[in-house]
Design goal:
It is built from 17 helices and no strands. By secondary structure, the protein is mainly α. Helix 4 crosses helix 8 and helix 5 packs across helix 6. The protein is globular, with a radius of gyration of 20 Å.
């Protein structure tokens, strides 16, 4: 989307306020995910579906997101970035109500498809606005924004855990959570940048293949999200079955991984501003590779736990930097962001099942050997993120577009 010159200039105070607003939007988005994840067992019982049927249903959010994400740019073009984000975020928060209402497998799949579609479109819209604010501030903020998403997910999951513990009906829980989060999201959206298309600009196509730049950037994001999904879903099983640890220590591995990711993302912007995206991802790839090797070769559970922590630390900032790089690549950044988002969503979808299938055919040791190889792929592929790098290889001078250069859902021709 090209910005109308009449709304193109924003004061720095307005841009800083927009940064906090977008961070709040990311937190709200994450809180929806955390709220849903904790009540999946209740939803399964209410819909009377088996474990296999639940696995099928849980594929529909990613399907819905992948199909709907390319539409986000068109919605932003039609209504402007602020109005589009306000509407898409409200649809996403209200969609939280739907899965708990589903009485059977068919309606659950339909509800989760809509849930994923609204998640994907709001995801693209908020990341595009995040890249725009980052450009105008001329410093990295995308890692921190995704860190606030993680914080929101932790808060949402904590509230969901309490609701599950007291036996609250998920229909009531999710309705109340949706109403609160919708209100918070609408308040936050009041202060995001109001970006609009040029009057004579052609709208983006409804559906289109991702540009080549999104494919190569998305490949790096794929490696990171695969390692993330595998670790989150399988770390506890790995420690229990392979290392023979207690159930408490096994559960702690998931918490350790999630916390290191959240902390690394919130602190990551300073590192990116100091060393640049490429160096940061290369070092992160090294840490993740060492973590994967520790998991595979560790003689005891404690070292394996440290390995999972290093994996989380190493992959934490990769996806935010992939979105930032996509937002500065090619002549259609909105399309590139949607492409990268589609690839990373796909990776998150297939990682848990791929790890399980490989483990069944061989062992979990081999599965996490694959995770380690993909982690090393971050070291080899980090250079493709140079489009989003604010530092040259030597000297530390900014090499990204100037702060006024538009990107994301409001990219100029």
């Amino acid at each position: 989307m090209t910005m109308d010159p009449t709304v193109r200039v924003f004061g720095m105070e307005q841009v800083r306020r927009a940064r906090y607003a977008v961070a709040a939007v990311f937190s709200v988005h994450g809180a929806v995910t955390g709220s849903f994840a904790t009540r999946v067992p209740w939803i399964q019982d209410h819909a009377s579906v088996s474990a296999g049927q639940l696995g099928l249903a849980l594929a529909f959010p990613a399907i819905g997101a992948s199909l709907a994400m390319p539409l986000a740019g068109r919605v932003s073009h039609r209504f402007g970035a602020r109005t589009a984000l306000r509407g898409l975020l409200a649809l996403w928060t209200l969609a939280l109500i739907l899965p708990a209402l589903a009485p059977n497998l068919v309606t659950l799949c339909a509800a989760l498809f809509l849930y994923g579609a609204t998640a994907g479109m709001s995801d693209v819209a908020m990341n595009a606005l995040g890249v725009e604010v980052e450009n105008r501030l001329d410093k990295s903020i995308m890692s921190g924004l995704h860190g606030w998403w993680s914080v929101g997910a932790l808060v949402g999951s904590a509230a969901g855990t309490v609701a599950a513990h007291i036996g609250a009906d998920a229909r009531l829980h999710h309705t109340l959570a949706a109403l609160v989060l919708t209100g918070l999201g609408l308040i936050a959206c009041r202060h995001v940048l109001d970006l609009r298309s040029e009057p004579d600009e052609e709208p983006p196509p409804r559906f289109t293949l991702p540009p080549k730049s999104a494919l190569v950037i998305g490949a790096v994001g794929f490696c990171a999200v695969f390692a993330e999904g595998a670790s989150l879903d399988w770390s506890a099983v790995y420690l229990k079955d392979i290392m023979g640890s207690s159930a408490g220590l096994a559960a702690a591995s998931t918490t350790a991984f999630a916390l290191t990711m959240a902390i690394a993302r919130i602190a990551g912007d300073r590192v990116v501003d100091r060393f640049g995206a490429v160096r940061t991802v290369r070092v992160g790839g090294v840490l993740a590779t060492v973590g994967g090797l520790l998991v595979v070769l560790a003689p005891n559970a404690a070292l394996a736990l440290c390995g999972f922590g290093l994996l989380g630390l190493g992959v934490a900032v990769v996806v935010p930097l992939a979105f930032a790089a996509a937002g500065r690549s090619g002549d259609n950044p909105s399309r590139a962001i949607a492409g990268v988002a589609t690839i990373t969503y796909t990776s998150g979808l297939i990682a848990p099942s791929a790890i399980g299938s490989l483990a069944e055919a061989t062992s979990l040791l081999v599965s996490f050997g694959l995770v380690t190889v993909l982690a090393f792929g971050l070291v080899l592929g980090a250079g493709v993120l140079r489009a989003g790098d604010r530092k040259v290889a030597e000297g530390g001078t900014p090499d990204a577009a100037p702060a006024t250069a538009p990107s994301g859902s409001a990219a100029a021709k």
